[in-house]
Specification:
The protein is mainly β. It contains one helix and 16 strands. The strands form three sheets. Strands 3, 4, 7, 8, 10, 13, 15 and 16 form an eight-stranded antiparallel sheet that branches. Strands 5, 6, 9, 11, 12 and 14 form a six-stranded antiparallel sheet that branches.
């Protein structure tokens, strides 16, 4: 009886130990056979070893398809690319008023300054002003700079109505030298070897109604610029004490620097450049002390300038 109780206790302890996975020892079951108790090889997950039975093993490298953000981004657009757009190279000429030039070079300019360019784009200029430096000039004496017209009074008696120029350069024509006429004009007076006149102004400034005059006109295709007038003048005791030169370019408004009587002088002519039409030159005398006083131009008188 005691033996059976001990056997039952051993069996119960073995079952209990087996349920906790503890290795048991072989004991008899009373029938002469040995009943071994072995390791538990069940299907539970053993977290101590690599789980190769389909469970998720968090201890191994994940070789899934997650994007690798450490590699270079080869996508587009690439904002570092060089901008190869067309640069605005503007005109090669001297445009001082171009306000809308685009990206095309204006290659149709002439060599003169552009005075009418207001919206040059890709079309060649057709509104450039013609200047003396234009290569298209057809002047027969282009580039001449020197004596344009010369009068020689050596053979005159003084009282002639007019005097004709002795020499005139090619590319220009000259009118005769005459006096202002009318009630306020000059009076022809004898004076050998000169072109002589009386009735000059008595005031301290030029009387615009009393003058000697001649006109020059450039030939077709030529432009004239006036530079100086060489004069040899002589007055009587009551004649003009001063003289001045003016031109029709400014309607005889701005007279040149006054010159004194009884002098040989070269007077500068200003404001007459690149003109294509007729230009009148006037010589004024003033400061006379009597209406009978005379002033003559004698020997020679020369107008100097340039043709283009």
């Amino acid at each position: 009886m005691q033996c059976q109780q001990r056997r039952a206790a051993v069996i119960g302890l073995s079952v209990a130990l087996a349920s906790f996975g503890i290795i048991g020892c072989a004991v008899g079951d009373g029938s002469g056979d040995t009943n071994p108790i072995t390791h538990d090889t069940g299907s539970g997950v053993d977290s101590r070893v690599d789980d190769s039975s389909g469970g998720h093993d968090t201890n191994v490298d994940d070789s899934g398809t997650k994007p690798d953000t450490s590699t270079g981004d080869t996508g587009s657009p690439d904002t570092t690319a060089v901008d190869t757009g067309v640069a605005d190279t503007k005109d090669a000429g001297s445009d001082t008023a171009d306000t809308a030039d685009t990206t095309i070079v204006d290659s149709g300019k002439d060599v003169g300054p552009d005075t009418a360019d207001t919206a040059d784009s890709a079309i060649a200029d057709t509104a450039d002003a013609i200047t003396p430096s234009d290569a298209l000039s057809t002047c027969v004496n282009k580039g001449f700079d020197g004596p344009l017209v010369t009068f020689d009074f050596g053979a005159l008696a003084g009282g002639e109505a007019s005097a004709t120029a002795k020499t005139v350069v090619s590319g220009i024509t000259s009118g005769t030298l005459t006096r202002s006429t009318g009630t306020s004009g000059l009076t022809a007076t004898a004076g050998s070897g000169s072109f002589n006149s009386s009735s000059w102004g008595v005031g301290s400034s030029a009387d615009k109604g009393k003058y000697l005059t001649f006109t020059v006109t450039p030939a077709s295709g030529c432009l004239v610029s006036l530079e100086t007038l060489f004069v040899d003048v002589k007055s009587s005791g009551t004649g003009p004490t001063n003289g001045s030169v003016g031109t029709s370019v400014d309607t005889f408004t701005a007279l040149g620097t006054p010159f004194a009587k009884d002098t040989t002088t070269t007077v500068t002519i200003g404001g007459v450049s690149g003109k294509s039409g007729a230009i009148e030159i006037r010589i004024y005398g003033y400061g006379a002390t009597g209406s009978g006083g005379t002033m003559r131009v004698q020997n020679t008188m020369t107008l100097n300038g340039r043709l283009d």
